[in-house]
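Ticket #353: bound-state structure for L6N33NVT.
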Amino acid sequence: MEKVAIVLLNLGGPDSPQAVRPFLENLFTDPAILRVPGFIRPWLGKFIAWRREKPAQENYAIIGGRSPLLELTVAQGQALEGALAGEEGREYRCFVAMRYWHPFSDEAARQVKEWGATRVLLLPLYPQYSTTTTGSSQTAWDEAAAKIGLSVPSQTLCCWHSDDDFAAATAAMVRESLRQAQASLAPGQKLRVLFSAHGLPETIVKQGDPYQWQVEQTVAAVVKALDEPGLDHVVCYQSRVTPQKWIGPSTEAEIERAAAGKVALLVCPIAFVSEHSETLVELDVEYREIADHKGVPGYFRVPAQNSDAAFIASLAGLARRTLAAERPLCSFRGGRQCPKTHTDCPHAKVRAA
Ligand SMILES: C=CC1=C(C)c2cc3[nH]c(cc4nc(cc5[nH]c(cc1n2)c(C)c5CCC(=O)O)C(CCC(=O)O)=C4C)c(C)c3C=C
Ligand SMILES: [Fe+2]
Ligand SMILES: [Fe+2]
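RESOLUTION: The complex was predicted; output attached.
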């Protein structure tokens, strides 16, 4: 019997107000996030975390003082186990490895070893590859696996930005939200879909990160699956947290543009597949307030995928095809071949500057 451990890689989030500061310290001392010389990073990272603690705590306070990410990721794992169950000769078990808060990679690697996995599939819950997310998690996993002495064959499902089934599952959710939004708007009211992705400092994209290009591929695939001729839509970026220039247009700028044009908005989070502080607070509270204040004639949001059955089925298909090597395998396996630019991956392309 083959025992396949599917390790869900995710960001993690604080589980109490006291955890916000150490969570932020873990995030801002990650070399994939804070790209400054190593001797400055611990000091600068801790300083930025100290500065960010209060606003972040205030955000988490709105959703009960903690991130919902762990529960939602565990539920996705259970649903995925259900979708993969019953295969002859193979048993699947899902594990969760968070990058910046518990359970960390070494906790997950220990569990995988104890379970007696004969094979590992790393499944990042980020549809698009970024050196700051999947790349960073892969590095952390490799270090943890080496430390724990877990040495079974391992594959990484590095990115799935334009997978047909993922795009169809997302499009079905957008279609349902479009229908609800249109039903509550006055006849003839113009509506635009904002596909809002987490932003990234522009320098990181210039260094070869394929994230922005992959976000655009996701949006193109979802719009194609939606099949709504003439759909007014735009890709934009939210959650800027450092003073550098981040990729744009920003979601806030798009809200202002919609207000000026008297266009209603349906906002669809496109780079993260669970609800979290940036959907529940930034999109649902902060941006909604801006939209109301500026006079946007309607503001709606598409829910995140969470454990939506069609979405989970798309992950199951991706996992099966990757294990069977039917899906073009990314050269980014084991974190050794293209950890920096990821450019030699067959399904990653750096966006032209
Ligand atoms: C330079 C800083 C950051 C980069 C680069 C970055 C990239 C990045 N992040 C996500 C997804 C999430 N990030 C989340 C929280 C979060 N991210 C940063 C900073 C950067 N992220 C901070 C400081 C925080 C903490 C919250 C805050 O201070 O406001 C989350 C939410 C986690 C939760 O709610 O539990 C997600 C999700 C992506 C996809 C990405 C790059 C592509
Ligand atoms: Fe982030
Ligand atoms: Fe890839």
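RESOLUTION NOTES: Strands lie at 2-10, 90-98, 119-124, 154-156, 191-198, 233-238, 264-269, 299-301.
TICKET STATUS: resolved
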